[in-house]
Write the structure tokens for this entry.
Amino acid sequence: MQQRNLSVRGLSSNGHIRGLACVTTQLVNVLQLRHGTSPVASAALGRTASIAAMMALLLKDEERLTVQIHGNGPLGNIVVDADSQGNVRGYVDNPDVQLPSNRHGKLDVGRAVGSGLLYVTRDMGLNNVYRGSCELQTGEIGDDLTHYFTVSEQIPSAVGAGVLVNTDGSILAAGGFIVQLLPGYVEDEVSVLEDRVKGLPNVTELLRNNMDAQGLLQQLIPDVVVLDTRAVSFACTCSRERMSEVLHSLGRQELEKLVADQLGAEIRCHFCNQKYVFTQSELARMVEYERIE
Ligand SMILES: [Zn+2]
């Protein structure tokens, strides 16, 4: 039986350690199918999506967040969007990158991502946007987000995410965790938590052995009190209406050129790869509308 795609949030019984964990195997499978990602691209995008899905559990109702990885490696940019309801979408600029394994025999995500910057944008609505950033550390995504929380948000944290890819390119297991020390923690708790993180078997191995998100969290915080559980799934907010707004934003001159070309227009949503086709007569109507405006 396949584990449900869930993210969970909990606290140690004394309230000093916050933990998040998730299983995202189906979500990363959908991303793989939508974008046709290569194994290394699935791993990079899937790790980012898993971490974003957990971070979204810390959002309030109408908020959403975007994690952007701007590396100089062959994958280009990775962008993942998540909202407080567990909806996640994302893409990578170059989904078909192939690279030899790294020296540990693993997918070389670090090399595929390269060096650069990481951005986290939290949109709280009403033009209230918070943006934090940090330099990428290894490009392995988990390390980079660990650094982000510690430096940019000043919360001592450990972040891990893993994606196990089958020989046919499908996703066998995906998920991750975030543990954070909250104000009031004592020094002893730091080393105990560090030891638990270091001693944790590979996340994807645990998930393959049918561990669920809560079980994963208990490995890191044995006395965890679960506060919140949310289903995680792929969903895109694009629509034909939004895409026609994109065309309108080109302006009348550009629209007139498109009509003159007589080829119609095709726009693809970056996030879900959905194709929207606009015929020549639809474009002509848009020009009319621009004239009236
Ligand atoms: Zn879309």
